[in-house]
Amino acid sequence: MHRYRSHNCGELRATDVGSDVRLSGWLHNRRDLGGILFIDLRDHHGLVQLVARPDTAGFEALDKLSKETVVRIDGKVISRGAENVNPELATGEIEVEVGEVEVLGAAQQLPFQINQDDGVGEERRLEYRFLDLRRERMHKNIMLRTAVISAIRHKMTALGFNEMATPILTATSPEGARDFVVPSRLNPGKFYALPQAPQQFKQLLMISGFDRYFQIAPCFRDEDARADRSPGEFYQLDVEMSFVEQEDVFQPIEQLMTELFEEFGNGRHVTSPFPRIPFRESMLKYGNDKPDLRAQLELVDITDIFADSGFKAFAGKHVRALPVPDTAGQSRKFFDGLGEYAVEHGAKGLAWVRVGEDGSLSGPIAKFLTETDVEELTKRLSLAPGHAVFFGAGEFDEVSKIMGAVRVEAAKRAGHFEEGVFRFCWIVDFPMYEKDEDTGRIDFSHNPFTMPQGGMKDLEEKDPLDILGWQYDIVCNGIELSSGAIRNHEPDIMLKAFEIAGYDRETVEAEFAGMLRAFRFGAPPHGGIAPGVDRIVMLLADEPNIRETIAFPLNQNAQDLMMGAPTVLDEARLKELNISLRKSVTP
Fold this sequence. Notes:
28% of the residues lie in helices and 25% in strands. By secondary structure, the protein is an alpha+beta fold.
């Protein structure tokens, strides 16, 4: 028999009754019932129940051991009997009567319980992440991640893509976030940057003639944490294709996402094909550029109705309305609750009216609306008895943010929210540029390597804020999975695009020397995208926080509490790297 096990803890069945077996695993739980010990033994594959009877060597050994001790046991498989079967366990028809026990790894007192959720805080969980990962939910999440990545590789290869690796040590690049930098010992005073994404390298692969590339790529960005963003490092499905237009990129990615979410979505429906929604339309209808389409409500711009209104709360402001049907049975608590929700998201309040059986409007602001206002609102919003309308007024961005959140919450509370589905969409036609409200400076709104939709003509003739790029995002259930673009592969257009954003020719030639040199030796039209693996798994696992799907994430302050990173370097190491600190740092 094998030194540690003849079977794993998840494979024994009724057909094994009578067999002598050897198992190894962790003591998951222990119960003493009338002097008989029942032990749940756990390994990677599952749980099996052990039974140890009084006055046996197995009983004496197991009775003294703490939970999470690693043991090897020899025993005999016996039937539980029909009345004791546990249908929630794959091994629920049998148990193992313990004979010999060997301790393989003793466990100290645990900082938190493994076999139950005891409400321990995230910082403690991350400090003891190796214990946290023993929990069933976390173990399943990590194995789901493994299966998803394996499936992505298989499906991408079947779609004709080739997996290639790109460098980790590279040059810094202005891609929208702070770089992590690495000092060069052999080149004093110089630094490498960890890649925020393999953006330039994958474009260079296309220029090199490889046509269809993909990689499960590690990316590094020194940015703040969010529920859907892990600080430090993350992984993305990096994709690039040659001789393609926007729809050519959409087709394989849409097929991949549909198959992936159907395979691992636990029965949740994937709506296909994915709608294409222009950026400006998304901002107006949904209040953001990552709409949750499960919410079956839309915002309506009614600014013009109140442009010259005597109602001071709306006059001269951007006004958005949210019509909500079938609210006749809702109490005042429904309206007040949404008002409180809006205030939590930055509003000063939430104006509303409701439509009665006779078509008249009632509510806090109904008395301020003229007959013309009511007539226009009824027509524009297709109002009918039972409708309610919520209003937001103010600056465009402020109203969009608040009413976008209210739209989803109102849909959930009013029964207009679709559960059990994955609703994808493409957001398209992004502006190439945006203006900094404080400085007035024109800058890129997204990826600086995007091809403008009108090429050089648009760059030379249009107002920069009216220029659209071949930029797109893929969104699922209100989570942005990725940005992508058809790339700017023509040097003159690239130089002009950067000039508009305030970069002189010398700077661009210096910072993107490799790219520009490659473009001047024959570059194919190309484009790509990079869906976030962590976010994909977060959605499939139905987890609200991305750190729940990463084996060893950093905390919100970009610290590894388990390994103690980042660390302080001693003087000898700093000298070797030719680094001096402006002020001393204590460990």
